[in-house]
Every structure is written in structure tokens, then in C-alpha cells.
From TrEMBL:
Residues 12-132 form the Response regulatory domain. This is Response regulatory domain-containing protein. SMART domains: REC (SM00448), TPR (SM00028). TPR repeats lie at residues 236-269. Keywords: TPR repeat. It comes from the Bacteria. PROSITE patterns: RESPONSE_REGULATORY, TPR. The keyword Methyltransferase does not apply. PANTHER family: TWO-COMPONENT RESPONSE REGULATOR, TWO-COMPONENT RESPONSE REGULATOR ARR22.
Length: 543
């Protein structure tokens, strides 16, 4: 036995390989390196479950699984997109396919190394030694990230980047992701661009595109992505980002096509199938939506990589098709998910929505109305977010389609519009939940027009040299509507004109309180990761 390093005797490892001989050989190599606890699995789905609930110091994963729709790439992409693959874990992809495309995919998935079969024990040793040394070099950064101190981690990355300290490129990659997560795209862009100057790495170019998009420069982001995809047409992550850009530019059909391409490259990716299903649902492609969501559900409805909003939309499609058995399965799956996070308001509302759909399908009108009014009573709650608003409008629309009338329904729709119509994209998505209901469509349009008028009034006050009046007007409208666009505009006005606003500290505190409680931007279609209470609950237990 020749130990990898002095810390290896405390390590755990997971070997994922369908071939029992290869799996046994890899496990034997790890034991020869000094790893005392090696878990083996032959299936990617079993590996996903293990990685969702346990921590491993080393993961060796085969690319190809002949009897499964999921590849090793799909598995690791899903875990990475769901933030379920710790930075401290060394991940090595192993494949018998030496084609450039697969090698590039492995490199882009934030893996620590890849190996092409046949490989030697020494080759594996070298990869593991290098990766573990790098992890130790970055251990202060990794500790911050894994404890949830993203700002502390970003600042450590920034210091390593500024001084070109050990492994500064890897620190910059982590730092770029953290600055994006913290809403600092300009800091992230400097890191990605510095990496590009020394090496033309596709992931760094994608990072630049993401910073451009987050900074509000969608046109530049699109150009960067088009150039990148022209050179790297197999880059699934780039299609994910392109979908977000195209949706915000008002091109939903092209956005859906971009996600189709991502799913085509990673057909076993649960997360990407759910995203495709969400977009297809809201943009009038129910057949494609139900196909994508059913496939995602079969692959891993109880997995933490499955965004449970997808289950709500799948249940809605099953209701619309009169599929009582399918809807019952969706209700049961949601019940099981809630058992893992019983205190989650998000999952409780999801369960209520599916329950209303089930009541409607079985003509239990009184029960459907009771549960719908429970949701209506929560519209002004701080944790009632955009997806909850979409689901509520979707229910109101289906109640009316079945001639179940709520007399005050248009008024409730107006309240939802005034709170959640923060942009053209969000207003359009809200409108798509009530297609074919003229009263509701008019209420949504009026609500969004009122928000736009309030913003324009405030801008006029500022242009006329009265920023205090602008803030007061915005604050008044924001307190009535809870609209995040108005809250943000008030905050930005205070920042730009602080020196000329009387009682600025008092006004700033009032705006900040609204911001902290009610700011809920974003679209219903989560083309980034939605926080899953099941993931958060298990993470809290593991700490």
C-alpha cells in the first residue's frame, strides 16, 4: 500500500461503474491508495441517491451506463446544477470513449479530472494526488462555500486572484460563480476575462456571457453565446444560459429550442427536462411539456434535482387531460416530498394546488373553492413568490373554465398583477396562465400598466429635480402593491441622489425594510436553480 497523502486514511470514496470487473478494479486501486471506505454502485440512479444524502471525498464515475437513460455526465450535471456536489469532493470521470466531445464535456462539468480507458493505476494516482493537493490549497475558500458564507468565500477568491496566489485560476472560477450568486456581475466578469487572457477556456467564455446577462447586457451576452456555441456546439451549459437570454428578449420559441438542444445533449438530465417542461407549458406546447415532465418524473421525481414546480405543472396537464390516475400519482409524489420538508410554505402551497385540481376533476366544487380561498388569503405574505402567483392564476382560470365562479376573482387577479408584474417578461407569463379569460387578462394588463405609470411618474419627479418626491411616491405605491420593481427604483433613486434628499436615512430604512421582506424578482420558469426546501433541510441536518 502506497498512501496518496497523509490525510487519505480518513477518506471515503464512491465508485460508479456498470461493469463489475472495472468497478472492482477501481475499488481495489483506491484501497491500495489508502482509502479505507469505498462504496460501489452499478447504476447512475443509485449513485445520485447516495450523493444526495452522503458526503464522499472521492467519486470515480464511468461515463456510459448501457441499461440506463442517464450517463455519468447527466448524473454529475444534475448534481452540480442543484448545488449537491460539494467543492471538497474530488470527481473523476472515466470513459472508454476518447472522442474530443466527451473529453470536453467532462472538462466543462467542473470535474477535477478525466481518464480514458485503458488507464494505469499510476495515471489514476497522479490525477487524485493533483486534485487533492488543489483542494487543500483552496480549503479556506471551500470551507466558506460549504458553510454558506458566500461573501467570505468570494472575498478570499478575490484576494487569491488579485495576488495570483496558488491555484488562482481555480480560485477565480469559484469566485466568479460566487460573485454572480451575490449579484456582483462586474466583479465576476473581471475574473473570467483574466482567465481568458491566459487560456481560451470555454467555461470562462460562458462565465463572461453570464456576467453580461446579469449586468443587463442581454444583447452582448447573446453574441458571446452565439460565438461560443458556434465553436462548441456540444456545450449543454451554454444552451441553458442562451435559453434564459432568449426568453428575456421575447423569443420563447427560440428559448425552448435552446433547451431542447441541451436536453438532446444530456437526455438523462432531470433538471434540464423539468426546465424544458416549464417553458413548453407556459408557451402553449402542452404535448411537449407533458412528455418532458413525465420523463423527468420517471427518472427522478423524488430526487432533490427535480424542481417540484414541475410536478405542479405535470398535475395541471393531467387534470386538463382528465387523467385521474396520473394526477393521483402526482399528488402522492408531492405528499412524499412534503414529508422531507413538512414546514415548507412552498411545498404546502404546491400540495394545495394539486389538491384543488383533484377536487375539480372529481367535481368537489366546495372543497376546491375552500382551498383556493386559502391561497388567495396569502397573496400579500412575504414568502408568497412569483411561482405561487402563477399557480394561483392557473387555478382561477380553471375554476372559471368549469363555470365555478368567484365574484371577486378579477379583483384578486389585479392584486397579483400589481405585486408581481415587474417586467414585460413576468407580465407575459402571468398573462399566459389565464389565456382565454378576458376579464382576467384585462385585470393583469391594468395592473401592469399601473406599475409602469407609477415608475414613469417617479422618473418625471427626478428629472424635474425633485428626487425626494420621487422616493415618496415610489414608497407609497410600493407599500400598497409590494411590487419589487418600485422597491428597487426607490432604492436606486436614494443611492443616486442621497445628498439632495431630506430625511434620507428614514426613507432609506423604509425602502430597505420593504426590500428585505418583499423583493421577489424572477420568472416562473426557473432557468437557474430554484431553492428546494428538501435540499435545504437535508443540508441543515448534515452540518
Amino acid at each position: 500500500m502506497r498512501l496518496l497523502d497523509e490525510h487519505i486514511l480518513n477518506a471515503t470514496a464512491l465508485v460508479v461503474d456498470a461493469n463489475p470487473t472495472s468497478r472492482s478494479i477501481l475499488a481495489g486501486m483506491l484501497r491500495d491508495f489508502g482509502v479505507p471506505r469505498v462504496t460501489q454502485t452499478s447504476r447512475a440512479t443509485e449513485a445520485r441517491k447516495a450523493l444526495e444524502f452522503r458526503h464522499f471525498d472521492i467519486v470515480l464515475c464511468e461515463y456510459h451506463f448501457p441499461d440506463e437513460p442517464m450517463t455519468g455526465q447527466d448524473l454529475l450535471d444534475d448534481l452540480r446544477l442543484a448545488h449537491l456536489l460539494p467543492l471538497s469532493t474530488v470527481v473523476v470521470m472515466i470513459s472508454s470513449e476518447a472522442g474530443y466531445a466527451h473529453v470536453a464535456e467532462a472538462a466543462e462539468a467542473a470535474l477535477d479530472a478525466y481518464l480514458i480507458k485503458p488507464h494505469t493505476e499510476q495515471a489514476l494516482r497522479e490525477r487524485l494526488v493533483q486534485a487533492r493537493q488543489r483542494k487543500r490549497s483552496l480549503r479556506d475558500i471551500i470551507a466558506c462555500v460549504e458553510s454558506g458564507d458566500f461573501l467570505g468565500g468570494a472575498e478570499l477568491c478575490q484576494a487569491r486572484f488579485d495576488t495570483h496566489g496558488p491555484n488562482w485560476v481555480h480560485a477565480a472560477r469559484i469566485g466568479g460563480e460566487l460573485w454572480l450568486r451575490l449579484g456582483k456581475p462586474h466583479a465576476a466578469q473581471k475574473m473570467f476575462e483574466a482567465i481568458l487572457k491566459i487560456r481560451a477556456l470555454p467555461w470562462a467564455r460562458l462565465g463572461v456571457a453570464r456576467t453580461e446577462y446579469e449586468a443587463g447586457r442581454a444583447f452582448q451576452a447573446r453574441r458571446t453565446l452565439e460565438s461560443l456555441l458556434g465553436e462548441q456546439p456540444g456545450y449543454a451549459d451554454a444552451y441553458d444560459v442562451m435559453g434564459r437570454v432568449l426568453l428575456d428578449q421575447g423569443e420563447p420559441d427560440q428559448a425552448i429550442d435552446s433547451l431542447r438542444r441541451a436536453c438532446g445533449l444530456t437526455p438523462g438530465s432531470v433538471a434540464r427536462l423539468v426546465k424544458l417542461g416549464l417553458l413548453a407549458f407556459y408557451y402553449g406546447k402542452p404535448s411537449e411539456a407533458i412528455d418532458a415532465l413525465q420523463k423527468a418524473s420517471r427518472l427522478g421525481v423524488q430526487s432533490k434535482v427535480f424542481d417540484l414546480q414541475g410536478l405542479v405543472l405535470l398535475g395541471t396537464l393531467q387534470h386538463d387531460a382528465g387523467d385521474a390516475r396520473g394526477l393521483a400519482r402526482s399528488v402522492e409524489s408531492m405528499l412524499q416530498a412534503r414529508e422531507q420538508a413538512p414546514d415548507s410554505p412552498r411545498l404546502r402551497r404546491f400540495q394545495l394546488v394539486l389538491g384543488v385540481l383533484m377536487h375539480l376533476l372529481h367535481r368537489k366544487v366546495g372543497d376546491a373553492l375552500t382551498d383556493t380561498r386559502r391561497l388567495l388569503a396569502e397573496v400579500r405574505e412575504p414568502d408568497f413568490e412569483f411561482e405561487a402567483a402563477c399557480n394561483l392564476l392557473m387555478l382561477l382560470s380553471r375554476l372559471h373554465l368549469q363555470e365555478v365562479r368567484l365574484e371577486d376573482a378579477p379583483s384578486h387577479v389585479g392584486v397579483v398583477a400589481r405585486r408581481f408584474a415587474v417586467s414585460r417578461t413576468t407580465a407575459e407569463l402571468l398573462g399566459r396562465t389565464v389565456r382565454g379569460q378576458p376579464e382576467f387578462e384585462q385585470a393583469l394588463q391594468a395592473g401592469y400598466a399601473g406599475i409602469t405609470a407609477a415608475a414613469e411618474e417617479a422618473v418625471s419627479h427626478t428629472v424635474e429635480g425633485s428626487p425626494r418626491e420621487a422616493v415618496l411616491a415610489l414608497l407609497g405605491h410600493a407599500q400598497q402593491t409590494l411590487n419589487a420593481k418600485l422597491i428597487d427604483l426607490a432604492s436606486h433613486t436614494i443611492e443616486r441622489h442621497r445628498g439632495s434628499i431630506e430625511e434620507v436615512a428614514t426613507l432609506a430604512a423604509q425602502v430597505q425594510e420593504l426590500h428585505d421582506r418583499y423583493r421577489s424578482y424572477g420568472t416562473q420558469v426557473h432557468l437557474t436553480r430554484a431553492e428546494d426546501p428538501r435540499t435545504m433541510a437535508s443540508a441543515a441536518r448534515s452540518r
